[in-house]
From TrEMBL:
Gene3D superfamilies: P-loop containing nucleotide triphosphate hydrolases (3.40.50.300). GO terms for biological process: DNA replication. This is ATP-binding protein. GO terms for molecular function: ATP binding. Signal peptide: none annotated. It comes from the Bacteria. The keyword Nucleotide-binding applies.
């Protein structure tokens, strides 16, 4: 695992700078919503939570990952690249630092870049709730679908109650994606030592190899926005 903080130098951004610049790609160019509608992006908007439908991957390391994935894509119909094998991201930060925003921003940025993309998103708690055995539900089939999905977001890993069963489910899912080298976006508010204790050594070992770690810091954005709204309301009263 390689660690990357909020600085645009070092780690993944520095490694990609030489590669992408040699291909004529401006690393400083910001990804913004297109002027013309993109059908795939429009379709994805219905599946993205309302709060993140304008999200853009604006963290330097996440933006660099998007560009690397877009460039590595295999050409498909009409020349549009499809998602290829590649590195994953472990986005770490305390509550409210924008981890989920960056994850959904990465999906939207890939679609804006024209990448053909099948993706799924779940929180760790929802993942376990959905896969828990119950009559009339094929949890095994759903687990395999998540394991094979070209891009998967697992939000808040380590936040759900842990058990031998959840550890085994996590191991099976991560191990299949690790072996297939499928990009996975994982967010957590736990440090690596705490995450290892929660998900087990086998999963933590695989995450260490398959992911680049992006560390988000700063104040809780939710509290900051709430304070700004209160100040605006007070000023206009």
């Amino acid at each position: 695992m390689r660690d990357h903080d909020a600085q645009p130098v070092g780690g993944i951004a520095r490694r990609l700078a030489h590669i992408l610049t040699s291909r004529g790609i401006d690393l400083n160019a910001k990804v913004t919503d297109p002027v013309e509608p993109i059908p795939a992006l429009q379709a994805a908007q219905a599946r993205i939570p309302a709060r993140y439908r304008a999200a853009v991957a604006d963290h330097p390391a996440v933006a660099a990952w998007v560009r690397e994935v877009a460039q590595a894509g295999r050409p498909g119909p009409k020349g549009a690249p499809g998602l290829a094998e590649g590195r994953s991201l472990l986005i770490v930060g305390t509550t409210g630092t924008g981890k989920t925003y960056q994850a959904y921003g990465a999906v939207r940025s890939l679609l804006i870049a024209g990448v053909r993309l099948r993706w799924k998103a779940t929180t760790a708690a929802d993942l376990y709730a959905e896969l828990r055995p119950r009559p009339g539900h094929d949890g095994e089939r759903e687990l395999m679908d998540l394991a094979r999905c070209p891009l998967l977001i697992i939000d808040d890993l380590g936040a759900a109650k842990n058990s031998e069963w959840t550890e085994e489910i996590t191991m099976r899912l991560i191990n299949r994606r690790y072996n297939a080298m499928l990009p996975t976006l994982i967010t957590t508010n736990l440090g690596m030592a705490d995450l290892r204790a929660h998900i087990g050594d086998r999963v933590a070992s695989r995450l260490t190899e398959m992911t680049d770690k992006v560390i988000l810091d700063g104040p809780d954005r939710r509290r900051t926005l709430a304070a700004e709204r209160r100040n605006t309301a007070a000023a206009s009263a």
